[in-house]
Amino acid sequence: MNAGGYDVLRQTLDPRERRERTLPELDGKPAPWESSMQATCECLSWRGSLDNLERREAEDELGETIYVDFPVRARSALVTAHALLDLGVISQDELQARMDAVRARFTRG
């Protein structure tokens, strides 16, 4: 997987958020979005769009390189978006527009 040209993903890291450093920080119940994302990835793999093994290998590789500063639980979402960008399923501009729309919904209250 390509590591360059993914500013839209790297810019999502909140300056206050950083990678977990201790086991207690890593321990905990997954958030609902994590289960939904995993189910989406399973469907993409089942349909042949995004192989689970390749995605997990990419998560290991990219999670320890360009996404190393991100919280561990966010990496699977980042790598999935990264893979979809690589596959041309979505462009950086489209992803940015969708992320902006979601943020706007959250700030409206």
Automatic annotation (TrEMBL):
Region span, Disordered: 1-34
Species classification: Bacteria, Bacillati, Actinomycetota, Actinomycetes, Mycobacteriales
Protein name per the record: Nitrile hydratase subunit beta
Residue span, Nitrile hydratase beta subunit-like N-terminal domain: 31-103
Compositionally biased residues, Basic and acidic residues: 13-28
Any Pfam family hit: NHase_beta_N
InterPro entries: CN_hydtase_beta-like_N, CN_hydtase_beta_C, Elect_transpt_acc-like_dom_sf
Top-rank taxon, per record: Bacteria
